[in-house]
Amino acid sequence: MQSLINAPIKQGTKVFVRCDIDVPIENNVIRETYRLDNLFPTLKFIIEKGGIPLIAGHIGKPEGVFKEELSTKHLIPYFNEKIGESRYEILENLRFDSREEQNDTNFAKELASKADIYVNESFATSHREHTSIVGITRYLPSYVGFRFQKEIETLNKVTTNPDKPLIVIIGGIKLESKLPVIDKFIQKADYVLLNSILSANWSKEIPQNLVLSDNSSVESKDIDTKTIEKFKQIINSAKTILWAGPLGMYEKEEYITGTKEIANEIVKLTQEKGVFSVIGGGDTIAAVDKLGILNKFSFVSTGGGAMLQYLAEDTLPGIKALES
């Protein structure tokens, strides 16, 4: 992959930047800006070089249909405030066109015709073989954005040469999608901890370093007190912690206890003992943002499915496209 630092950007160069702009919007107001905030090193670098960034991405799942509430126009005031009106262009939600998710050749050519070079700054979507992630790279000189590069470097640190003990915490509800990364870290980590629902669905042999929730149940909406204390005891031995997926139905106050207790414990270890903590996933970000501690971890990955797939496979379709 070629770094953006080497891109031939000069005055007037149009740069198609595939951005991660999939943020929650309610009543035309952006509710959480973490992913947007991480775009600015790349966008400002392009502008300082004299280039014009074309901000492109998707919001939500419109399935090829225009939906006003998912329009990128709701992001314009935010970008105007942060980088200045008229210093950038923003394209409409790419998923309003069904060809985006089909990796369509004609759509790739249409998108490429708008710019001189391409930059992928959407790690979180790079596990998808979509037009703006894969197809467009065939028609423009292509580079990786600064945040994307940092994502890879940080995750490589966890998989390749982590400070041990390495503790991995996996939450969420879909075991099947998480099995490859769980299997990989059973081989690499000192402990892998699963929440109640994932534990209930675990049907294979239980290795010594796989720790299941004590209240394993598909109906359980949070880990119980006994599990919280067991998890805390284990993570207190860690020098590196990877956490993907909330431990309960954090959206409801009565089911956020497990996520809150473990999150605060990880923050304490990060702040007081220098433990290297990496968390990721849209729901994980939303949960810790709700708790007001999003900026207290060593690194917060913008990827959910992309982070897990990269950790399991050491590559992504978006990375392969940049390397070809």
Compose a concise summary of this entry:
With 324 residues, the protein is α/β, with parallel strands linked by helices. The chain folds into two domains: 146 residues, Rossmann fold, CATH 3.40.50; 151 residues, 3-Layer(aba) Sandwich (Rossmann fold), CATH 3.40.50.
Question: Major beta sheet, specifics?
Answer: 6 strands, parallel
Discrete helix count? 12
CATH class of the largest domain: Alpha Beta
Question: Which segments are poorly predicted (pLDDT under 50) over 5 or more consecutive residues?
Answer: none
| Order of adjacent strands in the largest pleated sheet | 10-9-8-11-12-13
Keywords:
324 residues, six-stranded parallel β-sheet, 36% helix, alpha/beta, Rossmann fold, 2 domains, five-stranded parallel β-sheet
Please give a structural write-up.
This protein is an alpha/beta fold and 324 residues long. The protein folds into two domains: 4-149, Rossmann fold; 162-312, Rossmann fold (3-Layer(aba) Sandwich). It contains twelve helices and 13 strands. The strands form three sheets. Strands 10-9-8-11-12-13 form a six-stranded parallel β-sheet, with helices on both faces. Helix 6 (175-188) links the parallel strand 8 (166-170) and strand 9. Helix 6 (175-188) crosses helix 11 (305-313) and helix 8 runs parallel beside helix 9 (257-273). The protein starts with 13 loop residues before the first strand and ends with a helix.
